[in-house]
Write a structure and sequence with these properties.
Chain lengths: 478, 282
């Protein structure tokens, strides 16, 4: 179908809109891309984006907005796209979301906005995530002018601890309100999970860096290598460094291991360690970068979330002949983004579903040589509503492998909370915060994974925004 | 960047750096370490903080050149700077008044036990220090330790200085000597040495604290790369340690895990050496 400019500009009837099929995201060939770290999705062309935008039925009572954790006015930005006003579309998104180039790539749209799209009933939902990404990338290329803070300087100092999506968002918002903001980051590089966890082929680091640069343009100071709780404490931030409020956004950051025999053999990594070595430390470019990583020829990754998908696809890119996901539930129950599972399948990843490791096997020389597993079957639903996997007696079997990556979740890292007297945490060690995200300590707010448990980028950002609003109120009343 | 305020060679392949890092200097307690990334392409390596000068804002690190990162680091001169220094990390040393404490340092471990010896002395312990090395030239910090200790015993494998033999022999003699006391032992050095020391003290139930040196990445408990088995439980040395009860550590596992990157480390070092030589920089 070729359209003239007139076609594109004309207002379509609902019937005409319904006749347009969901557009395809151009992506690199599975076999080709599984050998490098360049991005998988290539982004929509302008014309395709406009055509996709025209599929939107412009519902009066748009359910997609409810599905979005930060309630972006989705029909409004899509209308702008259909009119060819891409910067206008970006402005609509920016009202609620500071990191659209990130969330357009990593949000689980299929359980948020897109699953509420009316078109799910007839064919397939409007590709809201791809459109968001398109707008953000367009804006990145075409924005002119510098970011400026128009609000008057308030003279108040706020510290954000952690530079993941929660910390970045909060810092940006507060800076725009005229506050003097410093981010303290434990690592040598800012970005949180966006730089050390999510790989380049899914979220190019240049995009994250641009967001960090934007913050600095807004006057936010970033101090890396500061581990709050060790280098500085929260009481010191107030008493010695003169801060008026603090936002804790240090993520969850404590890896869970399986607690099975053999887990300390050489060749067993937590996903955190594996991904940090590869992404943050550049181990895929060893020896140009000094940090090594065990590459593995046959790799097993245990878990079914985004982290597991990132790890298993990374192992393939590092040259593994066979990379396998070992997950104790069924394929449909995997919490990973659907797109990542599809991409993994296209890249030749094996899936051993309803399988749980019971032991890591050693080769007698301290190295991993296999994973002993047991088959599972689905029983009664558990508290999460998902049918609980139960082991099938006598079904043990071995998978040969030389690298095992454990990606079964993370917990609250106690380093900061233990060093902060009076800071209330729940029984799992996550920080307790009220509806304004204020903690048990006055002037100390918290959000993101350290409050919610391992969640999502968009929820962390949403928290950053909520916290900024409430910190601003708190400071005004001081 | 973290400025190198002073740099001195204190032994063969052994360099002492004084680094400007005011916050770390102020916060650091005895037994803690920092993670250093000398260049933007470097690994993150853990180094014990040997001393601090909070007034001046500096920390002292003693670094043995063992691999590519430390070799390349040794090319950074006074006035230059390290890319990243993060810390202080780990739990502070457990310091209490035991009576007579034997402090044992093997090789570079001597730099690790030096601050402990100071702290143990400050709370009123009598300090007997044993330092050991393969040969005379590798013994370090004798003068500092001689000044600090009530008694300093040196051992070398080849007998070129002090007693011929291992630190464990000297320790065993002290334990067997009816005129000396050994109320506690602090030890840092090669894993094999710490294991041997723990074996000597175990039958006598002498509290023995060892400082472990597994591979680390973040140093904040976030990766689990530094895991060690202590008392049958997995511990993260960077946050639960680096010091542990010497009678509970699974030394064999630690030794084994330390060999994980041997081939890569060698490759990296060889490439670096051949590269620097070709450039005529060496
Ligand atoms: C591999 C991986 C893939 C993921 N994929 C997705 C996805 O596709 N979509 C999605 O929505 N979500 C995904 N997630 C989850 C998402 O990344 C997190 O929910 C989100 O990053 C949480 O943001 P945050 O700001 O709370 O913390 P983080 O992003 O974890 O950032 C916390 C920062 O604080 C720093 N820090 C920690 N302790 C201290 C301290 N004491 N002092 C100073 N700084 C400190 C850390 O170094 C880190 O930089 C993924 C997570 C991982 C690990
Ligand atoms: S070094 Fe990563 S957890 Fe200890």
């Amino acid at each position: 179908m070729t359209e003239t400019k007139d076609d594109l500009n004309r207002k379509l009837t609902p019937k005409e809109r319904l006749a347009i099929e969901r557009q395809q995201m151009p992506q690199r060939d599975g076999a080709e891309r599984a050998r490098d770290f360049n991005e998988v999705n290539l982004g929509l062309a302008e014309k395709i984006a406009i055509r996709e935008a025209k599929r939107c039925l412009q519902c009066k009572n748009a359910k997609c907005i409810e599905g979005c954790p930060v309630n972006i006015d989705i029909p409004a930005f899509i209308t702008k796209i259909s009119e060819g006003d891409f910067l206008g579309a970006a402005a609509v998104i920016r009202k609620d979301n500071n990191l659209p180039a990130v969330t357009g790539r990593v949000c689980p749209q299929e359980v948020q906005c897109e699953c509420r799209c009316l078109r799910c009933k007839s064919d397939s939902p409007v590709a809201i995530g791809w459109l968001e990404r398109f707008v953000a990338d367009y804006e990145m290329k075409h924005r002119t002018g510098k970011l400026e803070v128009t609000a008057a300087k308030t003279g108040k100092k706020v510290a954000c601890i952690g530079s993941g999506p929660a910390g970045i968002t909060c810092a940006g918002e507060l800076a725009k309100m005229g506050h003097d903001v410093t981010i303290f980051e434990a690592f040598h590089k800012a970005g949180g999970v966006l730089v050390y966890g999510i790989p380049e082929f899914r979220l190019p680091k240049a995009i994250v860096q641009r967001e960090i640069d934007n913050l600095q343009e807004l006057g936010v100071k970033i101090e890396t290598n500061v581990i709050v709780g060790r280098t500085l404490t929260i009481p010191q931030l107030f008493e010695e460094e003169g801060f008026d409020a603090v936002f804790i956004a240090n993520g969850a950051g404590l890896p869970t291991f399986m607690n099975v025999p053999g887990e300390n053999f050489k060749g067993v990594y937590s996903a955190n360690e594996y991904l940090t070595r590869v992404n943050l430390m550049g181990a895929y470019q060893f020896p140009k970068f000094d940090t090594p990583v065990i590459k593995g020829n046959r790799v097993c990754v245990v878990g079914g979330g985004n982290t597991a998908m990132d790890a298993v696809r990374t192992s393939k890119r590092l040259g593994a002949a066979e990379s396998t996901i070992v997950y104790r539930r069924a394929l449909e129950q995997m919490p990973a983004r659907v797109e990542e599972v599809h991409h993994a399948q296209e890249e030749g990843i094996r899936f051993e579903m309803l399988t749980a490791p019971v032991e890591v096997l050693g080769n007698g020389d301290g190295w991993v040589k296999g994973l002993r597993c047991i088959r599972m079957e689905l029983g009664e639903p558990d508290e999460s509503g998902r049918r609980r996997p139960v082991p099938v007696k006598g079904s043990e079997f071995n998978i040969e492998c030389d690298l095992v990556i454990v990606a079964i979740g993370i917990n609250a890292n106690p380093l900061l909370t233990q060093a902060t007297p009076g800071l209330k945490v729940n029984k799992w060690g996550y920080i307790e915060a009220d509806e304004n995200l204020m903690t048990s300590l006055p002037g100390v707010f918290a959000g993101g994974d350290i409050v919610r448990g391992a969640a999502t980028v968009i929820l962390a950002m949403g928290d950053g925004k909520t916290a900024a609003r409430n910190i601003d109120k708190y400071l005004a009343g001081k | 960047m973290y400025q190198v305020v002073d740099k001195q060679t204190i032994g063969p392949n052994l360099t002492q750096y004084e680094i400007m890092a005011p916050r770390i200097a102020r916060a650091r307690k005895c037994g803690q370490f920092v993670i250093v990334r000398p260049f933007a392409h470097s690994e993150r390596i853990p180094l014990t903080v040997a001393d601090t000068n909070p007034g001046k804002g500096t920390i002292t690190l003693i670094v043995q050149t063992v691999g590519k990162t430390t070799l390349e680091m040794s090319q950074i001169e006074k006035g230059g700077a390290f890319q990243d220094v993060a810390g202080p990390l780990g739990m502070p040393s457990h310091i209490e008044k035991f009576g007579t404490v034997v402090v044992i340092g093997g090789g570079l471990g001597t730099a690790v036990i030096y601050p402990q010896a100071i702290a143990l002395k400050e709370v009123g312990n009598k300090i007997v220090t044993i330092i050991g090395a393969r040969t005379k030239d590798l013994l370090i910090m004798q003068d500092l330790l001689a000044k600090l200790s009530d008694q300093l015993i040196m051992t070398t494998d080849d007998g070129s200085s002090g007693k011929k033999g291992l630190v464990t022999h000297a320790l065993q003699e002290l334990i067997d000597d009816p005129n000396s006391r050994v109320d506690a032992v602090y030890c840092a050095g090669p894993v094999i040495m710490m294991k041997a020391v723990a074996q000597v003290t175990k039958p006598h139930n002498i509290p023995t604290i060892v400082s472990l040196n597994p591979v680390m990445v973040d140093g904040t408990g976030m990766c689990g790369g530094c895991r060690v088995t202590v008392g049958g439980k997995t511990k993260f040395a960077c946050v639960d340690g680096p010091e542990f009860d010497g009678h509970q550590v699974d030394y064999d596992e630690l030794m084994d895990r330390l060999t994980t990157y041997k081939p890569q480390e060698k490759n990296s070092l060889d490439q670096f050496k051949s590269h620097t030589c070709k450039c005529g920089r060496h």
